[in-house]
């Protein structure tokens, strides 16, 4: 299995090289040359099986001969043994034909743990085999950073630099990044938005002398290994509800488009997905694009669902590549237009291809709060604001009641206690094993939204950069 760039100007790479590289050298995102498939009997057989076993079977076709099947299976077992629910991703019914898929039973109470816990093991394995170190730089709107810190803290092979927008994430999200007592972890509070953080990270990847000098790697959802790991819970949930003998629809709260693109990958592999409903808050660039065909960046508006306060959805480039029938030329043109004028247009043909599987809508702040109250009152179930966005959007969508709708719950409500309490009067508590989080000592560095300032900090703290300087000397 080889991987190609969405912009068509980077050499094909194998799975482990793509995992370590993150972003392609031409600025594009990696996708497999061909999509592997799973037959109906294999999908049906996922029902009731341990999650780690389903993971190994879904992901192995993407790995190819780059890793032994026994090693991948071991990494999956180790990763998911730490989760606090035996099903790893349990389904909870909250209304007729509506199910919540709980993706928050990992160590940082967010769906990012499901991919990050495996990704850290994959990267450590590859780096140790090569005798190399890596510098991981990640931008986060809240949950990715905490999951990365938990997964990579203490790594002998990698240093982790997490960029988060100062004052724009919840206290729990921030503390999960700033309280790690590990020398290889650096929490950088950027004076700007998540889009500023993401732009800095992309700029660092596109600065090839810097990238090579610090052996830069990324664990945002630009990294294809992240997306592949997330594909697994689509298969697990659908099989539990009767797939492949019945179709299943999914509603996904998303800002960066990575989580819902994993659902697209599942569909390409043969999962009978009826619909992928993209749920956004008022930062609704994805809903606007699918409605009008115009991708137009606007200012980011802070909301109660901060992980979705995004206006530049990186993974949309992967869908654009597929909708353009894998022709990189229109993708390059669109990305150049985005850099130049903060917008681009999707052709009618490509937009039609997207709408064949995707639809989208947004939920305003008052709708989110009302949904938290309603679900608590009618189902006795407490949801975080991101899950509430998805439930609110799912309610608006006309649908066949015979098709189960799975709403992805991407975070535990205790990660956003202020917003939940303001909506319904109940303040969700952290699990006992995280009860002391508020008392832990925080360590972070405030930096301006400036690529040069971040680059200087990384160069002075990266062990890979030091090793490179020593070798050059």
TrEMBL record:
Residues 2-80 form the Threonine synthase N-terminal domain. It is an enzyme of class 4 (lyase). Belongs to the threonine synthase family. It comes from Rhodoplanes tepidamans. The lineage of its organism: Bacteria, Pseudomonadati, Pseudomonadota, Alphaproteobacteria, Hyphomicrobiales. This is Threonine synthase. PANTHER family: THREONINE SYNTHASE FAMILY MEMBER (PTHR42690), THREONINE SYNTHASE-LIKE 2 (PTHR42690:SF1). Pfam families: PALP, THR4_C, Thr_synth_N. The gene is thrC. Residues 101-359 form the Tryptophan synthase beta chain-like PALP domain. Gene3D superfamilies: 3.40.50.1100, Threonine synthase, N-terminal domain. Its cofactor is pyridoxal 5'-phosphate. Its EC number is 4.2.3.1. InterPro entries: Thr_synth_N, Thr_synth_N_sf, Thr_synthase-like, Threonine_Synthase, TrpB-like_PALP, TrpB-like_PALP_sf. It comes from the Bacteria. GO terms for molecular function: threonine synthase activity. Keywords: Lyase, Pyridoxal phosphate.
